[in-house]
Design goal:
Length: 522
């Protein structure tokens, strides 16, 4: 990135515009401060699981990191450079690819907190070289991929644009019209994040790389993180590979400076854990900003995008997942947080196209880390109506438990409840067997939308109330066990607790749904 005087010209700032004084740096916090190992038994289980997963297909190098509270485990496997026989280690650096977007989002929110960026102003306020469009585009929309900005356009994700500065990176997309009116459609876009990178530079008075070092990498203890410039890589950087006909071949060499804020950094597994821990501890942005970043945005018609600001988010067996992955030539990456359970997982590979295996490994690690061996109650399904009722029960359970963890033990907030008795009644009607049998397609559509704003977030409201009731009655530890035991145990135990505590009848569903639960429970 260029020095400030040239940046003024590249971004088209008015003549005479004065640069801002660079922001003060935050103190560096070591990534491994105050951590302790897991039990030997758990570490052996985690290691054995990862090794078993690596036997499923050819691999080069892999690094895995796990944090839960103040406990930490890191494993490195295979080779960072196959040709030279160099092993992957915790010190190895990997191309981060789109995981860079999470770094960018944190930087944007820091500047918002300091009053230097406005999430809802026109991006041209800071990037006047971005041509005026039919509709203004805001940083909030760009962060959530709701700005309508194209993703790569004519350039594929593996195309080498050559070395580019900020102005050149912004120019890559400047000639494209918006593909949708902002706010109406989720359109994942690396180029949108380049606009945010340019805004970071204009608002802070620092280059994008300098800003990250001072305000993100430094405070998070990410000592080996940097912009991914091939000229500054050291001997610890992983060589990249892709699979061709079941064999590893070297990756195509691609300069990623043209996607700098959307996919242009490198880091080690230790660095990623430091970043994850800093997010969980609210050391990079405030608790309120963290919650805002981790809340899924929605389109104008009330459809959740499963993406907040710089992070994707979804429920997994009652866990609230906040994550970002990365995919480019040379690399596959994944950072996954469970903010309601104080957990961070990081995975990096120097083999392309590993999104599915990395997610599979992450999910398996979560099971071994947080989920016990309790017997799961699987529903007895006799027909398609049973299947849809069970789908609805599972979604009430999954969204409700996840959002409860996130709001009660993390930075999140629950949707405003219009009235719990009516919400319980509406859920009962949605899962009514006769209604489903009469109009199965329409019933399925309503069930699949019932956690979204267009469905008044009914499943979240009802499920979170059930989770809170169970935690108050049984304790947090037993509540966590439902991730293993499943939705039927969750519903049946809630009704049992309500019976013992004398919950209002309006908060126990009605007899028709209770009868369905009895039918489905083995």
């Amino acid at each position: 990135m260029k020095a400030w005087p040239l940046l003024l010209l590249l971004l088209g700032l008015p003549a005479g515009a004065s640069p801002r004084v660079p922001l003060c740096e935050r103190p560096v916090v070591p990534a491994r401060a105050s951590t302790r190992p897991f039990s030997e038994e758990l570490e052996r289980a985690l290691d054995a699981f990862v090794r078993a997963e690596l036997q499923r297909e050819p691999h080069a190098g892999l690094a895995v990191g796990v944090l839960r509270g103040d406990q930490r485990w890191v494993g490195a496997y295979g080779q960072r450079d196959v040709a030279q026989g160099l092993p992957a280690t915790p010190r190895t650096t990997w191309r981060m690819a789109s995981l860079t977007k999470s770094f960018t989002a944190v930087a944007v929110m820091q500047l918002v907190e300091r009053g230097l960026l406005d999430l809802d102003a026109d991006i041209r306020t800071w990037v006047p070289s971005w041509p005026e469009r039919r509709w203004p585009v805001t940083p909030r929309q760009l962060l959530g991929h709701l700005g309508g900005v194209t993703n790569y356009g004519r350039l594929g994700p593996s195309q080498d644009t050559g070395p580019l500065d900020t102005a050149g990176a912004v120019a890559l997309v400047a000639g494209y019209e918006l593909e949708a009116e902002p706010g109406t459609r989720f359109l994942y876009s690396t180029w949108a994040y380049n606009l945010l990178g340019a805004a970071i530079e204009a608002a802070s008075g620092q280059s994008y790389g300098e800003y990250l070092q001072a305000h993100v990498f430094g405070p998070a203890g990410m000592v080996h993180a940097a912009l991914d410039d091939r000229r500054t890589r050291d001997e610890h950087h992983a060589a990249g590979y892709r699979l061709r006909d079941g064999r590893l071949v070297p990756s195509k060499k691609v300069d990623v400076s043209g996607r700098f804020a959307g996919g242009g950094t490198r880091a080690s597994i230790e660095d990623l854990l430091g970043f994850g821990k800093s997010l969980l501890d609210y050391r990079l942005v405030s608790r309120e900003s963290t919650g805002e970043m981790q809340r899924s945005m929605s389109t104008r018609d009330g459809r959740l995008t499963d993406y907040g600001m710089g992070f994707a988010t979804w429920p997994l067996r009652g866990h609230y997942v906040v994550a970002h992955s990365g995919a480019q030539p040379e690399t596959s990456t994944l950072l996954l947080l469970l903010p309601g359970e104080d957990v961070a997982l990081a995975l990096t590979s120097n083999v392309e196209g590993q999104a599915a295996p990395l997610k599979r490994i992450a999910y398996g690690l979560i099971a071994r880390l947080l989920e016990g061996e309790e017997h799961r109650l699987n529903a007895r399904l006799r027909d398609s109506v049973d299947a849809l009722v069970n789908e609805g029960l599972g979604r009430v359970f999954g969204y409700g438990l996840a959002y409860h963890h996130w709001a009660a033990h993390g930075p999140g907030t629950l949707p405003e409840a219009a009235g719990l008795p009516e919400a319980f009644a509406r859920v009962t009607r949605l899962l009514d067997r006769a209604t489903i049998a009469r109009e199965p397609a329409a019933a399925r559509a309503r069930i699949l939308a019932a956690h979204e704003p267009r469905g008044d977030e009914l499943f979240i409201q009802v499920g979170a109330h059930m989770a809170r009731t169970l935690e108050e009655a049984l304790g947090a530890e037993q509540l966590r066990g439902y991730s293993s035991r499943g939705p039927l145990a969750f519903f049946n135990d809630y009704l049992a607790v309500c019976e013992s505590r004398g919950c209002p009848e309006t908060l126990r569903f009605d007899e028709s749904l209770r009868a369905e639960l009895r039918r489905l429970t083995p």
